[in-house]
Amino acid sequence: MAVIGGGVGTALIYPWVRSLKEAGNYITTIIGARSSSLILLEKELGALSNEIYISTDDGTKGVKGFTSDILRQILEQGGRFDIVMAAGPVLMMRAVAETTRPHNIKTIISLNPIMVDGTGMCCSCRVTVDGKTRFACVDGPDFDAHKVDFNELMNRLRAYQNEEKILCRDSARKLR
Ligand code: FES
Predict the structure, then answer these.
(1) What are phi and psi of 21, to 5 degrees?
(2) Atom of ligand 1 minimally distant from the CA of 116
(3) 81-108: per-residue pLDDT in tens?
(4) For ligand 1, what atom is nearest to the CA of residue 135?
(5) Once rounded to an integer, what is the mean pLDDT over residues 119-137?
(6) Strand partners, 29
(7) How remote is the CA of residue 133 from the centroid of ligand 1, in Å?
């Protein structure tokens, strides 16, 4: 099986990899970040994994590109996985889902990154899965990636993009 972590989502895959390894699985781990200094748990995951691949957006370590690029390459070269699991930015998880879909590989993603209060009260983690409304913190956080409505999810995540930019800009000014 393949386990994929992006950015801080790499911390989420560590317990997955450890348990799956303890259960006797052959683990291919793929981790990625924007740059080499942001790669997490490389040594720890490397020690648990049968194979480990790294990608960075800027090419400062491993493959220049994304974790899904590495996964695509492995699949194109004939590699096969029973299950692919991924945690990280929603954009990355969508790319992983679209990479495995044509190969009909069961793909599980963690929607932990979209949670805010984690109690079922704030509604920020609302997501449509298989045509039904779900809350990541109550009904998940792990879901079948091929059933998640990523278009709707991405649109919702962009809803306050302008306000977030203004807030970041104002906070940066105050720190100067
Ligand atoms: S994180 Fe607030 S409802 Fe799920």
Answers:
(1) -70, -45
(2) 1
(3) 999 999 999 999 999 999 999 999 999 9
(4) 4
(5) 94
(6) 3, 52
(7) 13
The predicted pLDDT at position 141 comes to 95
| Domain formed by 2-175, architecture | 3-Layer(aba) Sandwich (3.40)
**Strands 83-87 and 106-110: what pairing?**
parallel
pLDDT value at 160 more than 90: no
| Residue 58 DSSP class | T
Q: Is 99 helix (H, G, I), strand (E, B) or coil?
A: helix
**Cα of 116 from ligand 1 centre, angstroms:** 6
| Protein residues whose CB sits closer than 6 Å to any atom of ligand 1 | 115-118, 120-125, 135-137
User: Across-strand partners of 133?
Assistant: 128
Residue 132 burial (C-beta neighbours within 10 Å; 0-12, 13-18, 19+) = exposed
138 CA closest ligand 1 atom index: 4
Phi-psi region of 166 (alpha: psi -120 to 50; beta: other; left: phi over 0): alpha
Instruction: Delimit the domains of the chain by residue range.
Output: 2-175
Query: Per residue in 48-71, pLDDT tens?
Result: 999 999 999 999 999 999 999 999
Q: Residue for token digits 């194979």?
A: 51
Both tokens of residue 32? Answer: 């990625």
Its pTM stands at 0.92
